[in-house]
Design goal:
15 helices, 6-stranded mixed β-sheet, globular, D-Maltodextrin-Binding Protein, domain 2
Length: about 350
């Protein structure tokens, strides 16, 4: 007997551009190109809101020739599911974290080297500059098209259920959820924690049931996913800067006429710049909001974490894995790491 689930219905709907999310046939009949875009964030997140504005702009300025339907909040599966679908062409667009796409394009994780960036000035200089160009070229070799501007996911912070993290030693033995990312696993192992890779869709329940004691994400994600309901402390470690690559299936992008390619990329790049500003403004008020919900904050110094990573050989290991060219482009912006 076949079991019908909500997710199986959504997947079937996504397979048909005429049925996606119940969009009426007549509303989509005039579209020359009908594309699907999936992401893992709630509809309240700035990424979704700005992406919707870009989608509306594309429909308007293409006179209905190009129409994009958004599937938010893991409706089409976890991160690895959606990455597989955009590679195969099951969906045309996806915004993976750099840590997620690095499972296919390893150098894409270079922006997530632990304690590399000290501020956003360094982040955008690198990722809008030669380092970002280098990563996009590598992504293209996986038959994916990465748009020029990364979207901001913010600096990542550690939340815990039992104690604040004041120094590197406090992570010793801590069971912490990390993305499905070799770099994140390596960094937290070097800091003597016990990292566990779980899909983002599993994080809340894993914390609630104490499968893990801690997790790490940017503040807007902690707020949007209501992780403050299952965590007590937030340590502002700024240990990783993470961003979203806006990627398209390479074949789907190349199918578009040149004028639609330009509109496609321009609309999402412009929206990404606005989303960066959204997160900047959000981060100025979000800590106050989370404190009002009971989350307790502390701000540890980076020095003990950096020292332990150097002592454990973390930086030397990842310089070898990323290669001298990519590592050199990173250090041109942030200074010597290893």
């Amino acid at each position: 007997m076949t079991t019908i689930t909500r997710r199986s219905v959504l997947r079937a709907m996504a397979a048909s551009p005429l049925l996606a999310l119940g969009v009426p046939r007549l509303a989509r009949a005039g579209a020359e190109f009908s594309y699907k875009y999936a992401h893992n964030l709630p509809m309240t997140h700035p990424l979704h809101k700005r992406a919707q504005e870009a989608v509306d702009r594309i429909r308007r300025e293409s006179n209905g020739r190009l129409e994009v339907t958004i599937f938010p909040n893991n409706q089409l599966g976890g991160d690895t599911d959606m990455l597989s679908q955009v590679r195969s062409g099951g969906i045309e667009l996806f915004t993976p974290s750099a840590l997620v796409i690095a499972t296919v394009v390893p150098v894409a994780a270079i922006n997530a080297v632990g304690f590399a960036f000290s501020d956003y000035g360094q982040v955008w200089k690198a990722m809008d500059g030669p380092l970002g160009t280098h990563v996009r070229e590598k992504i293209a070799k996986a038959n994916l098209y990465a748009f020029e501007k990364m979207w901001d996911n913010g600096f990542r912070q550690i939340t815990t259920s039992s104690k604040p993290i004041d120094q590197a030693l406090d992570l010793d033995g801590t069971k912490i959820r990390v993305p499905v990312s070799p770099l994140s696993i390596s960094m937290f192992k070097a800091l003597s924690a016990a990292p566990a890779s779980l899909q983002f869709s599993e994080v809340y329940s894993a914390l609630q049931t104490r499968i893990v004691d801690a997790q790490e994400n940017p503040l807007p994600i902690i707020q949007a996913a209501k992780l403050y309901e299952v965590q007590k402390y937030c340590s502002l470690t700024n240990h990783i800067w993470d961003g979203y690559w806006f990627i398209a299936n390479g074949r789907a992008f190349r199918r578009l006429p040149p004028e639609l390619q330009r509109l496609f990329e321009t609309a999402f790049n412009d929206a990404g710049m606005l989303q960066r500003e959204d997160l900047k403004q959000m981060n100025q008020s979000i800590q106050t909001d989370l404190e009002s919900k009971g989350l307790k904050f502390n701000r540890p110094a980076a020095a003990t974490f950096q020292a332990q990573l150097r002592q454990a050989g973390f930086y030397e290991e990842w310089r070898g894995k990323f290669g001298d060219q990519a590592w050199g482009l990173l250090e041109e912006t942030v200074g010597k790491l290893a």
